[in-house]
Amino acid sequence: MESEASGAPTSGAALARKLNLLLNTAEAEGRKIGFSDVSKAMSAAGTPLSRSRWHYMRSGTGPTVKKIDLLKNLAVFFGVSEGYLLDGDEELPARVEAQLDLLATMKANKIRKFAARQLEGLDTETLLQIRGLIDQHLDSEDTRRPENR
To answer: Is residue 83 located within the same domain as residue 105?
Structure first.
């Protein structure tokens, strides 16, 4: 029998954001996690998960998930602390934060390389101005990330 979370559970939208972030991090690490992977792991852990429940957990719709055992098992599956999914703990796990930083760097480099290929043949001053604009835009995106506020 699953126990219910005590106190105020993580809101549906917050839980959805966290789950999707964990899925994106796993994908960035080269692991594509589908519903069947999560479902099998949750069944093996004693907390079966239906496709519809997984959908509303990932979309932030439907009732708030109050089953503490399910959230604990999901935390184990994704390799994060239970508090990340159970509490209002907004602090990113170190692994997730490192992957986000890596992805931001890769994105910035990809944009710079694309611009360099597309802008070949422009004079140096124009290229420097465009690079400045790209850097300014990427820096402003970086300051909008929650951990940089």
So the answer is: no
Is residue 26 within 8 A of residue 84, CB to CB? The reply is no
Q: How many domains, in total, are found in the chain?
A: 2
How far, in Å, CA of 101 to CA of 35, rounded? 26
Strands of 17-59 (E only): list them.
none
Per run of 10 residues, the mean pLDDT along the chain (length 149 residues) is 44 84 80 93 96 92 84 91 74 61 66 71 80 78 53
Give the residue numbers spanning the domain of 84.
12-90
In a domain, 137, yes or no: yes
Exposure pattern of 12-35 as b/e (b: 16+ CB <10 Å)?
Answer: bebbbbbbebbbebbeeeeeebee
